[in-house]
Amino acid sequence: MPSRTRVPERATAQPSPHRLAGVTSVRLALPPAIGRRIGRFDRAVDAAVAKKLRGRPAVDQVFYTASALGDFSLLWHLIGTTRALGSPRHERQAVRLAVSLGVESVLVNHGVKSLFRRTRPTWEQHHHHRLRHPSSSSFPSGHATSGFMAATLLADQSHHGWPVWYGLATVVAASRVHVGIHHASDVLVGAVVGTALGRVVLRVWPVS
Asked: Which of 19, 41, 122, 181 has its CA 20 to 30 A from that of 99?
């Protein structure tokens, strides 16, 4: 009886987290060409950050601190509470900000993120930094949505202070790419969503 030559099974390589990040509902929901462009954009931004910024002590300190302060919208609650001590109008704004941040957190973290189960980038925590690494979906960035919504609300009737609020929001949002917890596209979409949510709040809850 002739022996049968066993064909070796083809080894299946384990995809890296960066590869997994491309095969998600975010990419599957879009035309393939757009999905590939988003992937290239994310990789290009991450490579530029790694080359130009990561590993520089002063830059790392700024972005890791900003990322930590953005957890649970701590920075924005502190700002709102501090400003509330100044005037009754700021007190009303602080209440609006706190309530809006709570609603935003529920909508984004328990709503939008559950629809887009995007894998986060490969993340390596440096031994001298301590950051909470969330287990939720990467898309969109909650730090970006909360930051830009807060900046939009804080800038209401603040003709001279708006660059400060949007500048802080930009630093907090960008920090998520720097520390390797979000893709750049997560942050950009989060900024747009946060700004839109802020505009909605200004319409439905004006503070005079």
From this structure: 181
* Model pTM score: 0.84
CB atoms < 10 A from the CB of 148, how many? 27
Residues 6+ apart with CB under 8 A from 46: 121, 177, 180, 183, 184
How many Å apart are CA 157 and CA 153, to the nearest integer?
Answer: 9
pLDDT tens for 78-134 read 999 999 998 888 999 999 999 999 999 999 998 999 888 888 987 665 545 678 888
Q: Which domains does the chain have, with CATH numbers?
A: 20-204 (1.10.606.20)
Alpha helices, DSSP H only, in 53-109?
57-70, 74-84, 88-107
Among 67, 58, 92, which Cα is nearest to 147's? 67
Alpha-carbon distance of 197 to 190, in angstroms, equals: 10
